[in-house]
Structure formats: structure tokens, C-alpha cells
Amino acid sequence: MDIRASDGRCELAPRRPARSLTARGARAAGGALYALLALASLAGAQAPGYEVTDEGAYLLERTSVSGPTAARLRATWDGAVTRVEEGLGLAVPPRPRAILAPTDAEFARRLEALGASTAHADALAVAFPGQGVVVVRERGIAEGTAAGLEATLAHELAHLALGQVEAARGARLPRWLNEGLAEWASGRRPTRDEVLTLGGLVVHDELPSLESLAEAFPPHGVGRAYLLALSFVGWLDAQEGGGGVGRLVQALSRGASIDDAVGAASGRTLADAEAAWRDALRAEYSLAEVLLRSVTVWTIAGLLALLAIARHLWRRRRLLRALEAADAADEGEEDDDALPDEDEVTTPGPPPTA
Description:
Shape: elongated
Distance between the termini: 116 Å
Strand content: 5-15%
Oligomer: single chain
């Protein structure tokens, strides 16, 4: 799984008034500015071959071949916004611009034009919070998986929402926290197999620290950084009776330090929370369960094939031993036949005398 990326400068926020004070405050403060920016964007700046349409909640920039994806975007937009509002308690900035790139080459070209590095060219989508833009790579979308359009869109809209928090704070959030919250808002949760994988990394002392991910977050598709970040955010949410993510985001919105915000969510410092999370992963790890879950139909078929080969070799060896015994018996009989019978043996007479 993860599976989406942001250039760190871009984030989105819910478009409708959320139920929290944070969402309402963000909309009241930023609504007018975003509306003006959206209208300016609609007036021009679209790339050659693209057309811009006003979808009400957002502006859509697409080519003539992107009709089916554009229809799915309209159908999933409200659901993606709801995921962000309910998951983070933040409002998506009103009327962001969604760009549908029909090919991988066009996706890379649009990212470069917006100032993103080529390291994001393999991402499903990239958010630009400072510009209120989300670029989607159409060929990367796979419905029915974690790479579905609604989950992907919610992840990027969460980046736009978190971008407003960063702007108010005057500083970026650690990349692991930004990505972890965006994954959480998308609705993705670690599977049991993924929990066991992370537990195995802890047991073998191979799980990267949050501090190392803050300094250098791997590019999209490299390592398990997104999964690690999601796992820690999920652990925070379960602390103090649940609702930890909401308390974390509210504290961040008030300008609290990362350590204090983690404390609001979990009642621990960041260092203590990370240690407790690692202990929880270690406790979840079971080598027997890992081995059991690794068994597939092909594994069973392979084992049956090995048993059949072993049985064949055993029977062949047994047959060879029987043949060797029979040959040995035949050779013994042949040796006995080569000896003269007793009545055929003559006793030499006395030597002749002179």
C-alpha cells in the first residue's frame, strides 16, 4: 500500500463548514481569499489542450479525453471532503483547482510547471497547498483499492487543509506527521499483515525512527514510511479513550509545539509516545502468525509436490534395495552351482610302485 505523495509545500482543507470550530474558523478566515484566487485561475493560466470548468465546489482542469475520470471526480468529491472533515476536523479550502493529467508524461510536465521535483512523478497525485491545486495522475488510479479516486483525493485535500494549519503556525509540520494525518484522513488503516510487518521491523530493530523520517522522508513508493507514519497516527488516535487525532490537530491549530500536541493526544511526550507505540507493535508481533499467513494455495501445492517427490524417492530406494538383495541371492546360487557334487569327487589312489 502506502501510496500518495505531496511536495511538502501543498495542502488542502475541507470545502464545507465542518462540525468543529477549527473547520469553521478556517473557512471564515480563508474563504474570501480562496474565492478570489479561484476566479483568477478560472480566467486563465490553463495549459494548452486543457479546458477549465467551474464545478461549484472546485475548479476542474482537464483534457478532452478525461471525461470519464472527470465524472468520477464529481461523484466522489463530497465523499472525499467528508473524510477530511470527519478525520481531521479541518475544512478543505473552498474552490481548489483539480487538474487531471491523462498520461504519466503529462503528469510529470504539470508537476514541473507547478514547481515540484521529479521525485513525485510516480505518485498518484500531488497537492500544492500554497497554490490551492491538486494534480491527479489518471493512469495511477485503481478503484477498489487504496489507490481509488476518493481515497487519493481525500489524501491530497487533507494536505491542503493541513497547509492552512502550517500557514497559521508559520512553520511546516514534520513530513511523517503531515503524511500520517493525510493517510488517516483518506480512510486508510493498516491491515493485520502490515501490523505484523511493522512489528517484525521493531523486533529486529529495523524500524526507522520518527526523527529520521522528519529529516529525510523517502520518495513515494520507497520503503514503508507512509505505513509507519499512518500507524503512529492511528496509535495516537486510540490513546486517552480515543479521539487523539482530533486533539492533536486542534493543538497544532492553536500553535502548540509538536511535543505538546502529541501530549494532548496521548498524555505523553513525543519520545515516550514513540517508545510506547513501538512496544505495542512488538507485542502484536507473532512469528507463528506470520508463518501461517504466509501459507498460500501455491505454498500448499509446493509442499504436496515435495512430499510426492520424497515418497517417490523412498519407494525407489526401497525397490533398489530389494533388487540388490535379489541379485546377491542369485550370485550366491551361481557360486554354489559352480562347485562339484560330492559323488563326483574321486579319491586319488596310492602312488604307483616300481
